[in-house]
Amino acid sequence: MHRPYGIGFFRIFRDGTIDMRHVISVLVENKVGVLARITGLISGRGFNIDSLAVGETENPDLSRITIVVRGDDAILEQVRKQINKLIDVIKITDFTNEEFVERDLMLLKINCPIGKRGEIIEIVNIFRGKIVDVGLRDLVIEIAGIEDKIEAMLALLRPYGIKELVRTGSIAITRGAR
């Protein structure tokens, strides 16, 4: 079994293989079955999808699929070429060598023990999160940011007891003029 070490955009395994993190944006026609064909193609090549987000664009006839996968550059290039051949695919952008902005969103319902509300609010504020619902014994927190930021806040809040957690996949957009 591979044991990775390192963090960020790539992991180096003890056997010397490199596992690159790729953020890919696929602009597609907003039609039934397009997502299934794309994800099937990726999983058929042996890639696990770490993150997946889909939504309409500024044009309601188009959707943007943001996919985060890890793997070898050469194999991923073949996957990109295969996806590009699909009839409903308009454009593929691999952000690996681009400057881009990336964000995830998390909603978290956490226990709020008596006397601990101030501590929890302080942690949320430090990470620029928002408290979006307050109950007698729990809080619902929203945070948006890069994956590392979300993971760091989550680590600090875990000791209070997480009741429920939901996350989006990553979404990304290039920086500057293109």
UniProtKB/TrEMBL annotation:
Top-level taxon: Bacteria
Enzymatic reactions: 2 pyruvate + H(+) = (2S)-2-acetolactate + CO2
EC id: 2.2.1.6
Single GO molecular function: acetolactate synthase activity
Metabolic or biological pathway, per its Swiss-Prot or TrEMBL entry: Amino-acid biosynthesis; L-valine biosynthesis; L-valine from pyruvate: step 1/4; Amino-acid biosynthesis; L-isoleucine biosynthesis; L-isoleucine from 2-oxobutanoate: step 1/4
Enzyme class, spelled out: transferase
GO CC term (a single one): cytosol
Pfam families in UniProt: ACT_AHAS_ss, ALS_ss_C
One Gene Ontology biological process: isoleucine biosynthetic process
UniProt-listed InterPro entries: Acetalactate_synth_ssu (IPR004789), Acetolactate_synth/TF_NikR_C (IPR027271), Acetolactate_synth_ssu_C (IPR019455), ACT-like_dom_sf (IPR045865), ACT_dom (IPR002912), AHAS_ACT (IPR039557), AHAS_small-like_ACT (IPR054480)
Domain ACT span(s) in chain numbering: 23-97
Keyword vocabulary terms for this entry: Amino-acid biosynthesis, Branched-chain amino acid biosynthesis, Transferase
UniProt entry tagged with the keyword Mitochondrion: no
UniProt similarity note: Belongs to the acetolactate synthase small subunit family.
Subunit structure: Dimer of large and small chains.
Its job: Catalyzes the conversion of 2 pyruvate molecules into acetolactate in the first common step of the biosynthetic pathway of the branched-amino acids such as leucine, isoleucine, and valine.
The name this protein goes by in its record: Acetolactate synthase small subunit
Species of provenance: Kuenenia stuttgartiensis
Classification of source organism: Bacteria, Pseudomonadati, Planctomycetota, Candidatus Brocadiia, Candidatus Brocadiales
Gene: ilvN
